[in-house]
Every structure is written in structure tokens, then in C-alpha cells.
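COMPLEX REQUEST
Ligand: iron/sulfur cluster
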Amino acid sequence: MSEQIQQESVSVATGETLVEVNQLRTYYGEGGIIESNPVKAVDGVDFEIKRGETLGLVGESGCGKTTLGRTLIQLEDATSGEVLFDGTDVTELSGTELKDWRRNSQMVFQDPESSLNDRMTVGEIIREPLDVHDWPTIGVVVDADVATTIEGNGVADARTTEGVRSDVTVTVRGGSVTDVETRDEMQLERDDVEVELRGDDPTTVRVKVTRSRDQIRRARVRELLDTVGLRPEHYYRYPHQFSGGQRQRVGIARALALEPEFVVLDEPVSALDVSVQAQILNLLEDLQDEFGLTYLFIAHDLSVVRHICDRVAVMYLGNVMELGETEELFANPKNPYTHALLSAIPEPDPTADRERVTLRGTPPSPRDPPTGCPFTTRCPMKIRPDKYQNMDADTWVAIEVFREVLRERERAEKSLTEQAKELLGMETRFSDIDEIKRELFGDIDLSREVEEHVDRAAEHVADNDEQGARRVLREEFGSICDDERPDDYVVSDTGRVSHCHRHMDEYTEPDEFVPYTER
Amino acid sequence: MAQRETTASRSEQAPLLQVENLQTAFFTDKETIRAVDGISFDIRRGETVGIVGESGSGKSVTARSIMGLVDSPGRVLDGSSIKFDGEELTEKSEKEYRSLRGSDIAMVFQDPLTSLNPVYTVGNQIKEALRLHRDMRGAEATEEAIDLLEAVGIPDASRRVTEYPHEFSGGMRQRAVIAMALACDPELLICDEPTTALDVTIQAQILELLDDLQEERNLAIMFITHDMGVIAEVSDRVNVMYAGEIVESAPVVELFENPRHPYSQGLLNSIPGNQPDTDRLSTIEGDVPTPNEPATYCRFEPRCPKAFDECSKVHPESLAVNDDAADHTAACLLYPEDVSQAEAVELHERRGSQREVSER
Ligand code: SF4
Ligand code: SF4
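STATUS: Structure written out below.
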């Protein structure tokens, strides 16, 4: 039923694309003094965001969702790949181009406490981006029966300058100005604009704004306060005088100051109480309707995401594991990780009787992600080699834990003394392998074959060769999940994609497969 | 947890912990904050009692009061009573409290790093607890520490005991803290938002662990959280706190199926998961007030959609919501629901003045 995707990106819904992300990677800590693997925070993701939609980005801490959000708006440098906004690759922008583009994409942070400067008044905080970007540049369009050019201080020709809106519209007929209109967000009245015509062919339209920039900015801030549900007198208060919900409103007003199209919301309600959280979510939805905003909503709280997002991308260890329409994905998750994640959420219903998949262990380090599928170390549906299909759950889990312990050990920093001891062939805390074997396999009847491999691995460990031990186990008990990165497969009519080998014809689909541990 | 059958026979067992009219206040130059303002509840062996509330509701101060961990300028006020296994705790000296803390009552905090010392190995910290409370030392203690780490599901425990807290992941640290709490073989475990800082899949592991431990050891657990989903999952009984008071108390199923207090109703309604199909979330307008004066009125009144005149004049007492529901109480003038409103208000007034008299 599923078909493999040939192209790097899939069009998921109809509608205009605002953001397109292709094979994006963001790595940290490369080329440091100490030779170490980089943190692969975002490791090759593809997706699109439609104009006016809310795309949710969910996953556990360390999965790379915040880095991804920050990379999209260039607060973080991409290591490779593209981020196209309206077709322009913003990872290539720098200098003034980048600064200009930045107005268009803003971020609201999780913690309104630390993201607002406590020494500035609320008014100053909201106004700051206006000052930084020397707002406003007033965009002028002229509707004339002759050729015209536009002139004036702080004025730009909206017909030719990118990113400038039509703030003032001047109508010229028969050599005189017949009408001047101003856009509300600009805080200008008709009286604040003087227009003069000079010469002909082309006619120069001189636009002079008589209201000072300072006045205009202040009026804009007042309007923003009102937009986010704060009162005019809040202008002169300080953030610490505000409740968490009010502070988040300030953060939102600040993000909206420059009229962005795209807003990254990074856990915007996680620090708030439930009752206040609902107020902020409602506000965000209202603002989206009013200003046609496009949101990337980063969150770990899945019930919030389910409520507010049109589509959701589920991330794990730098990869998007599943992406599709929200309701569909929540009602019938296709990817094994999504399935496990959803089943872990406690439902506010004490009578709910669900089977829960409790995952073992923790995600591996993003410095050393598995070669194959990112979820392979914890996946309860992981593909097994044919000959171990019927191995009992306890033995399988013991082997998986054994592999995890070895991986952990390789990762655990060995102190200098320990390294020295190891070189001298002395006992270290890392060499008590027999004890581990006893702990893990003590109560289990191993088949001859399994025992042989476990013993061989143990010998490698005893020789301080953890890597060798891991290899032995991988060769015997591993599968395609350990060796190959899964492709993205389209798994529903609406174009949902899932990143898992089980969507290949030769394997049982994840949603039809009963995890070994639950049999 | 989820030993719901215990709730039926609840009243026959003597409570392990009995809190009566607990009042804890913080005295600053400007004001007196009545963080916990006259709450009463109890916990039995093998039972999990959930305390749910938003920030500023007083739920954490309640835990700290029971643990004897309220620091100046805070104080547990006279007239408060906390009985553990029949013994009054409020009269204990700091020294007596300390021995109780490690041995009979243990606490797990939201941030495991507050309970772990960064400069000692995890093993040494567990061994220290074993030495203090169970007089174990040397190889015996090491052995027991390893067993405890295994009991809380930490693989490769014999290596892990030699590691420092920073070498543990968040979930593993919380397991280590639970192991430390178990080192003193407590009867009551107080968990203050123990999974709030953790990811859901790790939270699920910790909740499962607590559940197993409870069953094995017949632990009484007091579980504090703001998360209604977690409360639903772990509790046998739930107390809802608002601005220092318990506004509703009921068996978990009853509370979720039939919440009576307007605040509990609002809280449940504002959870996004409870209303996936609605466009707008229902909210509780306004913010949680700071309780800085004695309540002679309903503290929820400014935000309550059902408020009426008397709400700002009469203090609602915790009363059974109706005649047949002895274990379901609400502090709201709308209850008991089986009498007229005027009668209900009078009941609350009468109960309030009785309480004042008995406090004198
Ligand atoms: S590819 Fe394998 S390990 Fe990865 S999610 Fe699918 S079944 Fe699990
Ligand atoms: S006492 Fe009045 S204000 Fe308070 S919760 Fe009940 S109805 Fe609402």
C-alpha cells in the first residue's frame, strides 16, 4: 500500500508553500580542539509549510526540534541543505539582506521570564525591534495616469522594493493628487501625509510624513498592546510586575511588531498554568486569523499540539519520523515512534484503559546516533533476523539491554586514571562484565546459539574492546533497522509520510504489528 | 497505584498520614502570604493521594510543611496538626524531624539535582543514606546500593554506582533519587512534580516504576502535580487546591466524571485534550490570586462563572456534595446540592463559625 518517495520532498496539501526545507542538517561542535563527533541536532529533514497553516513540531528533549526552529529563521547556521522562503534560500543570506529578511520571521520563546529584559518597560521591549530595524519604512504606491517616480525621507516605492507593503496609496489624475489612503497598521492619518507633484514624464511624487517616527512607533506599540489583550497603561510597567500569561502576551506583541509572516513559537505555553495556557492558545489562533500568520509550533505537550496544529511533524534524534495531518496522525499513528510517544501521554481520564507501550532506556546521544534507523535502539517493533522471530520477549529484551549497556559504556567518559589502568591491563570499573551477564541473563535459559554470541561479545569486553563486542552482537542480532536508514514512505491518501522500514512490502506494517513484548 | 478497590474500604483503615487544618504562612515586610490556609486530608497505606493545582495554589508548600522543610520567613501556624502513624509532627524539634525525614517519610522533588550532591558519586550518596537510616556500611552498603539501583531499573548498576550525577540522564537521575528515597525504607513517599521535567516516554517509565514499588512495599504516596493526565493515572483520591485551600476532594473516577467545584470544572475544561473538536478552548479568565488575607469569602469568586452575591461574603467550607457522597467534598456555596441554596449558604456559615470557635 505504501510507495516509496523518489523526490526529496512531497507536496502534502494543496495551497501555496511558504517555507520549503530540503535535506537540512545542523551540527554543533565540529572542528573543536578536542577531536569529537559533532552533535547532529538536525540530521537531514525535508518538509514544507503552507502559507497560513500551523505546523507542529513535536518530540522529546534533545530531538532537535528547537534547533530546527532556530535554523529555519537563521538564529542558527545550517550545516547543509536549504531553507527556501518564497523560493529564496535564506541559509545563503547575510548582511543587510539577512537583516531585511529577518523582519519577516520572528520567534516567541518558551520562558517569558528570561526572554524579556527586566530593566526595560513593557513598551520599550515591544518597541525595540522597531528601533533596531528603523521602522517604519513607509511603502508608497502611486496609481497614476502618467509615469511616476517616488521620493521622500523614510519612504520606499512599494512597487519595486521587496518586502515593503503598500502603506500609503496616492492616486494621481490629470496632474493633481485626487486621493491619499493610509494603511491602519502604519499609525498614519490622512493629515500626517503631505504629497507634492513635480515635473512630468516622469512625474516625481514627493511624499512627506509630518508625524515623527517616534510618535509613529509609540502609536504602533499601543496598538500592539491592544492586539494581544493588554491595556494602554501597561506600556510603562516592568515585566516582573506581570503574571506569566501577561509576560507571554508581551513576548507575542514584540514578535508581531514588524508584521512578520512567519512565526516560530517555541514551547509558548509550556511554562504556563493550564487555565492561562488556554487563554494564550486562543489568542494565538485569533492573531493567525487576523494577520494571516504562518506558525511553526514547537512543543512537547501533545494535547496542545493536537488542538492548535493543522499538521504535525514528529521528531526523534534529529530526524522527522512521521509527518501528516494532525487528527489523522493522532488517531492512527503509522510510525512506531509516534505510536509509542502517543501511548505514553497520560490521559485526563482515569477510566481510560489503553495499552501502553513503555519504551526502554533513553534516546542515544546525538553525537553517536545509530547507523540505521534513529529509533532502532528503543523500537518495540524493530525488525528481527528471521531465525530469531520466535525468541521469547525476555531474552530479546535482555539482549537489547546488553547492547545498550555496551553503547553506554563506550560513551561514558573514562577518567584519565581509568584510561591509564586500562592501558596497564588493570582492573577498572568497566571490566566487571561477568556481573552484567549475570544481572541480565542470570534468570534466562539461553539457547546454545544465543549463548555463544553473548559469550563472544563478553570476551571482547573483557579485553576492553567494547566496539568489537558491539559488532558481534550487531552481526548476530541486528537487522536492516541497525544497518540502513529508512526511506520516507507515503502512508495515507493525504500524503502523510513515515520514516520506517516496516512500510516495505516484505514486512508487517507497524500498525498491524503487535510488539514482541506485548505477545 | 490504581488500587481503586482500596477506596471502598478506605474508612476502615487508620490513616498513615492525617493532616488537620494545616496553615502555613510566609511573613514578609509587606504582607502575610497564607500559602496553605486550613487544609485537611489523609493518606492510607498503599494508597496514592493526588494533590493537583496551579502555581501558587500551595501544593508544594503543603509537601514541605509535612516534611518539616518550611524555612523562615515561613511558619506552620498554631492550630495545625500533622499526624504520622498517630504521632503529632508539628511539635517535633528540628532534630527529631530530621530522623523522621530520612526514615519514615521521603520526598522526591521535581528537579533531581536538588537532591543529589554533584561532588559525590551516586553510590556514595545512597550509601550515606543507608548508613544514617539503616546503619549499613562497607561492602554490605555497596551491595545494597547496587540492588536499589537495579530495583529502580538502572542497568549496569555496578558501574553506575561509581558515577557522578552529571553522568546520568534526566530520567536516570530521577531514578537514582527514588533509589535514595527507598534507601531508608520509607512508609510514605511524597512526590512533588517528580516527572514534570521529564519527557513523556521517560515519565511513563517513572510512573510505572512508582506503581511497582508501591505494590511491592505497600507505600503510601502523596503525588503533587499540575498535570491532570498524570493525576488521573496515578491517584486513588484527588484533592484539588486553589489559593491555599482544598476546594474539592473525591475518589479519582468521581472527580473526573463529575467534578462539582466550578474551579475543578474549569480546570478540566481548559485541557486541550479534553476538547479536540472545539475551535476555542474554554478558559478561566484572570489569574490565580495571592492569598494574603484570611478568607472570609470564596477566593475563586472573581473568576467564577457561577458566582452569586453571597460568594463574596461567606467563606465556603468543605462539605459533602450531597447526602450520599461522604467521600466527595467541595468548598463551594452551591453544595450540598440536595438542599436549597439559602440552606446551603447557611450550612457553610454555621460550619465556619463552629470552626472559628473550636480554634479559639
Ligand atoms: S525502521 Fe525499524 S527500528 Fe526504525 S521505526 Fe521502523 S521498525 Fe522501528
Ligand atoms: S462559592 Fe460561589 S464563587 Fe465560590 S466557587 Fe462556589 S459558586 Fe463560585
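REMARKS: Residues 14-118+243-309 of chain A form a domain with the Rossmann fold fold (CATH 3.40.50.300). Residues 330 and 342 of chain A are 7 Å apart (CA to CA).
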